[in-house]
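In the design runs reported in the main text, the only information available to the sequence generator was the tokenized backbone. The following block is the verbatim input for one such run; it is reproduced so that readers can re-run the procedure and compare outputs position by position.
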């Protein structure tokens, strides 16, 4: 008899231990919803209740995860279509200037590194955009008595974004008209550029870009003293460009 009582006690302790361990794994919200069945000693009903609400809360948790991922994607996804405006800041290394007339050819004239800025606007469609940009910068020659040149360019460019992700490579080509001023006169010429870099999306209405731009100005004739025409020829200009765009 004593042996039988011991077996019952051990079984009761084991049952209480396993039951307590099972309760510890149950979500408190689920337990609160189903505890009434436990108090009424309806074990099967209690187990079905726990199983049901476990599935319910699991689905809710999964939906929240999906919602957070979707919300994050929506908040950073770029707009597919629309107008935009923005600006760029640039560090410009103007290409060397070669001056050539009918008599002789002067030594190339190197320039210092200067800053430039631009204002721009355009229209985006899918991963492409067409852009109108006013780009201005000045450069002073390394030789002190050669003065400063001012460059103003109005460029029409086409850019292509490689993909729709938050961060993407970008490539652009452009052409436009430029005006070069030396303090006394100004001269018109044509400019071309190719740009490549990274385009990043902050949110659907705001993005940033960082690019390297190679720009080439066509040769043009200069005649300040009305005597001999001098042809000015510039080597390619290299600029590091960074800026932001706002989409309407």
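Verbatim output:
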């Amino acid at each position: 008899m004593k042996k039988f009582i011991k077996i019952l006690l051990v079984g009761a302790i084991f049952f209480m231990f396993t039951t307590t361990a099972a309760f510890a794994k149950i979500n408190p919200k689920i337990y609160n919803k189903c505890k009434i069945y436990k108090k009424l000693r309806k074990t099967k009903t209690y187990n079905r209740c726990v199983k049901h609400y476990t599935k319910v809360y699991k689905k809710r948790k999964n939906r929240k995860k999906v919602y957070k991922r979707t919300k994050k994607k929506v908040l950073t996804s770029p707009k597919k279509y629309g107008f935009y405006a923005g600006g760029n800041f640039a560090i410009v290394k103007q290409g060397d200037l070669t001056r050539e007339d009918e008599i002789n050819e002067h030594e190339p004239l190197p320039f210092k590194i200067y800053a430039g800025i631009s204002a721009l606007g355009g229209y985006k469609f899918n991963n492409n955009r067409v852009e109108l940009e006013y780009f201005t910068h000045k450069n002073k020659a390394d030789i002190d008595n050669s003065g400063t040149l001012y460059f103003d360019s109005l460029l029409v460019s086409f850019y292509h974004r490689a993909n729709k992700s938050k961060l993407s490579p970008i490539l652009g080509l452009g052409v436009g008209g430029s005006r070069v001023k030396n303090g006394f006169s100004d001269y018109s010429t044509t400019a071309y550029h190719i740009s490549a870099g990274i385009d990043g999306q902050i949110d659907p209405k705001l993005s940033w870009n960082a690019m390297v731009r190679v720009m080439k100005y066509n040769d043009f004739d200069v005649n300040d003293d009305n005597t001999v025409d001098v042809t000015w020829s510039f080597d390619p200009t290299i600029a590091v460009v960074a800026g932001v765009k706002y989409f309407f």
